Fold this protein.
Amino acid sequence: MSGLDKLQHVKPADIEARSFEIISAELAEKGVVLDPANELVIKRVIHTSADFEYADTLVFSEGATAIGIEALKGGCSVVTDTKMAASGINKRVLGKFGGEVYNFISDADVAAEAKERGLTRSAICMERAAALEKPLIYAVGNAPTALVRIYEMLQAGEMPVPPALIVGVPVGFVNVVESKELICELDVPHIVARGRKGGSNVAASIVNALLYLASNNVRE
């Protein structure tokens, strides 16, 4: 039997559904029972990453998923720390609710100010977002400095409008774990991937999961 003969023949439209069936079955085999309120978010992250550790490491503040869904339904926009995360968010569904995606990372003035102040561009981007003075979901998948700046601004009372939700899933080794724990200390709705793992694709997948739930398009 050749390698090709071992492949499952699945129609393109059924690939995602089959993937979620496999995820559900493997979680059941491991004896993992997910909180129904957050189940679809966790499964979508596993679908994006093929990493079942997220079933244990994704943490949700009380009611975070429901809060995120209602925020999106109310026209809340999303700000990201990377273009990759921004590009991965389903803007068609977000736009149906009146929201849009903001990303300031390539703005010339952001780069200039970051250099002048000795900060990262991602930190300055969070300041730009806060200056919009509107409800936002902050989706951070790459830069722990973005999470730290959000924390600092909240602690200093420098965010006129607190985040509707913080998605804190940066990936890496330097200040990544610590920055996520700072967000977990806040009395602000949050979804955080504890530990080193994460990424822009994970941030986008969490936002998309909330969007699909908001539109009642479960896509399980």
Observations:
- Residues 130 and 196 are 26 Å apart (CA to CA).
- The mean pLDDT is 93.
